[in-house]
Amino acid sequence: MSTERPFGRALCAMITPFTPSGGLDPDRAGELAVRLVAEGCDGLVLNGTTGESPTTSDAEKAALVRAVRAAVGPDVPLLTGVGTADTRHTLELARQAEEAGADGLLVASPYYSRPPQAAVEAYFLRVADATGLPVVVYDIPGRTGTRVEPATLRRLAEHPRIVAVKDCSYDLYAAGRLIAETPLAYYSGCEELNLPLYALGGAGFISTVANVAPRRLREVLDAFDAGDTARAARLHARTLPLAELMMASGLPGTVAVKALLGGTVREPLQPADRPAVDGLRAAYEALVQAESVV
Q1: pLDDT of 25-51, one tens digit each?
Q2: Residues placed in the known binding site
Q3: Exposed (0-12), middle (13-18) or buried (19+): which is 238, by Cβ within 10 Å?
Q4: Residues assigned a catalytic role
């Protein structure tokens, strides 16, 4: 059973800031990263879905890692997404990430082709062997079309550099078994399960909502660690209306974050319309203005 938190507890799946003309904005990325760390994020995850990785080039991905590393310094854990539908491309991105200064790799299973489990396992092992960086398996079958099955994760856990899972499987039973029976550190990738997974022994969360409310998400874990589980549950419940609007109302999380923080999204994404923005702002204000002690 793992009690390790290899990248801290509270991680933000950070957006990628763009200029008004659509180019990468490394200065704004650095400023956002510094703010997120100051407001309670232990580490940052770059170039994920929230970071619009399907529409950023390999060069932009590396530039983003370098810019954020320069801004936050050497001690803040930086993970970067490298998963693609092509093993060869994924390996190239992994090596590039290591050179750019990343501390770990977030790797989704190959998407669209829906490979069988033996091929999924071989893919993750190839990535783990490609660099000296630790690997976080990203299990998100709703996007990739392929589950990383529990039996596959048990075998992958034997590799010394496969250290964690970002879990979006919505299978708490399997997650609880794997937390108890393997050394894998489990990070919730679904805000509504941040506290339930943590209560099962999870390591923490990797959150899109943390872009806008990092303190509110972290204080849930703080309350649980302090032994006040009732308060943790109440604080967690307070995050759910905003999380639902941002993550489960049909609006992509990236679009929701940029509706609140400002910023350009790349097509095919489109900015939120005015009713959506107004709803997000109301939910955000209700959360951030709430008393911490409940």
Answers
A1: 999 999 999 999 999 999 999 999 999
A2: 50, 206
A3: buried
A4: 138, 166
